[in-house]
Amino acid sequence: MSLLICTIMSDTLDMIPGRSPEVTISREEYERLQADSALLIALMSVGVDNWDGWDQAHEVLDLMTD
């Protein structure tokens, strides 16, 4: 399995002593993230951020990440 090292551009992680700003993920995960990112950019370019459910989606995401 090919692995890629992705640099997290986050000052928060850089401030944690002994914590590396790099993570290793599989190529499959990297490609899925790239596809998800491209889809989000396409959706936002056609106005999905003006959709009535946009705020609800963010609330659900907040609950999932807490």
Can you give keywords for this protein?
about 70 residues; alpha+beta; two-stranded antiparallel sheet; about 55% helix
What would your notes on this structure say?
- This protein has one domain (3-65).
- It has 3 helices and 2 strands.
- The protein is an alpha+beta fold.
- It has helices at residues 11-14, 27-45, 54-65; strands at residues 3-7, 22-26.
Number of separate domains: 1
**How many DSSP E strands?**
2
Q: Choose one word for the global shape.
A: extended
Q: Helix fraction?
A: 40-55%
Mean pLDDT: 79
Q: Main sheet, how many strands, which sense, barrel?
A: 2 strands, antiparallel
Total DSSP helices: 3
Provide the structure class: alpha+beta
Cross-sheet strand order for the largest sheet: 1-2
Strand content: 15-25%
Radius of gyration: 16 Å
Low-confidence blocks of residues: 1-10
Order of helices and strands: EHEHH
Distance between the termini: 31 Å
